[in-house]
Specification:
Number of strands: 15
Amino acid sequence: MLQTYVRGKDAATCMETICTADILGLPNGSGTLTVFTNDNGGILDDLIVNKVNEKELYVVSNAAMKQQDMTIMSSAVSHFKSQGKDVSIEFLTPSDQSLIAIQGPQAVAELAKLLTPQTQSLDQLYFMNSSTFNVNGLTDIRITRCGYTGEDGVEVSVPSTQVTLLTEALLANGKLKLAGLGARDSLRLEAGLCLYGSDIDTQTTPIEAALAWLVAKRRRATKDFPGAETVLKQLKEGVSKRRVGLKMLGTKPPPARSGIQIFNNEGKELVGHITSGCPSPSIGSNIAMGYIEETLKKAGTRVQLKVRDKFYEAEITKMPFVGANYYSKPK
């Protein structure tokens, strides 16, 4: 992942010119998922912006989009600086800083054992909150309560010179295990979370992607993010396609992977396509998400998926497929 710090009294205002979030309105120590958009409202990348304080932001975006995202943020900062605004940017390189994602029911409890001193606690670090702690003898380690699995968990930003030692310490008692992107991918799909380049890209807007909540209320009023005219028009007038969840029906159907075509229930009319799909380990059936004509988005609608030249029945279903277990602040 690309880790970035944006600093200065104009840092939040600067970042708001390139994404859809209400960063100015974030409480200190909290973060939000947002998207970079282009002039047509297309999604350039998804990212998390954490407001450390009024003059510092900690941003995490996708490694695959690193060069693009660096250009987007650098250009915004340069533009602001040319106007005499107070803002600067620091990109953390992989050789300097690493990120460990620890996810699952026991993740935080295991990490808590390495806090030094033990008087520190993660109990008040709620979902989408970020703060620094002393961990395994290391000082000022940034821990953010988030992750892309739908489970409780954290992301730990650690100097790359210490990442192996910290990982080994986390694995030492055997309760935590190493997991690859395949595990992450099935979990994020069960949680109904998008993968950039598969489920969202420059050809999809936040509204088409069923991510209207990423366009903050204040930003809808100010209309000052890239592609605002298109996005706000879609909010008002609707869209022709929408991201939906699908569950395959019948006896042992094959999984519907990315690119599989969606037809109406008679199998005669092409009405959409799959963007992600896999067998769900948690619910024991094949699940997928994709884009379908707006008129067919209602949960319970039956469709046909064409897999290897054969049709298999599926049903539009609400997401997430598996309920989230985020550690949220009590209301």
